[in-house]
Amino acid sequence: MTTASVTYTFVAGASAAAAQVNTNFADLVGFLNTNALQKDGSLAMTGRLTLAGLDPTSGDHAARKSYVDNKFRIASATTSGLETRFSSSYGDLSGGATGPAVTLTTGTEAYVALSCAASTVVDTIFMAVAVTGATTLAAADSRAARALQPDGEANNHSLCRVFKITGLNAGSNIFTAKYKTNGGQLGSWQERDITVWTTT
Fold it and tell me: Which of 4, 73, 134, 192 has the fewest CB atoms below 10 angstroms from its CB?
């Protein structure tokens, strides 16, 4: 850390030459101009500022990194393998394949992004999310990505949806993907992704 210093030292009772006093003043002015922060930003800090362990309470307060990190939390998971399900109710895929799933500490709301490649021979195919842990929410169409498949065709679809879930219990929540088709037709899913984030 740079500290201020002056060229001349004076003792009590001794005469002080004006030139020496002016030199000391110049030393201090030079130090301030070189090292003191300027409110117009013309002189910036060269090191990290360590803030007190206090959370901001106003929009113009500085915030610590740990405070910001704790406010925005995100988790994601991916499962690439091809799996199937033959049911009109939400559940896991064949062979006990589950998820993908993520665990995240949330407040009372969270944002969820679901995506996958999916196919069925008829009707609508779904990828939804169920919540367990601090909150219990069953998978539902209102929290699902979906695609409508014309009868008799078997095309691949890219499903994607982003939505907000409210009414969560604050704490550690587990978000797990669940699957179904309307009419109980066989469906297949692969490249399944889930991302959950919260700002509360």
Answer: 4
177 vs 95: CA distance, rounded Å: 15
Token pair of 16 as six digits: 């002080």
Say if CB 85 and CB 181 are below 8 A apart. Answer: yes
Give the mean model confidence (pLDDT) for residues 45-60.
83
Q: Is 162 helix (H, G, I), strand (E, B) or coil?
A: strand
Distance separating alpha carbons of residues 195 and 175, to the nearest angstrom? 9
Q: Which CATH number fits domain 70-198: 3.40.50.2300, 2.60.120.1340, 1.10.540.10, 3.40.50.300?
A: 2.60.120.1340
CA nearest to 125, candidates 79, 191, 180: 180
Q: Where are the domains of the chain?
A: 1-48, 70-198
Q: Is 164 a residue whose pLDDT tops 70?
A: yes
Q: If you ran DSSP here, which 8-state letter would residue 137 be given?
A: B
Q: Model confidence over 176-185: pLDDT tens digits?
A: 999 999 877 8
Residue 171's nearest CA partner among 195, 141, 136 is: 136
Does residue 62 contact residue 45 with C-beta atoms inside 8 Å? no
> Mean pLDDT, to the nearest integer, of 132-144?
97
Q: How far apart are the first and last CA of the chain?
A: 38
Can you say whether residue 134 is alpha, beta or left, with left for phi > 0 and alpha for psi between -120 and 50 degrees? alpha
- The residue count of the chain comes to 200
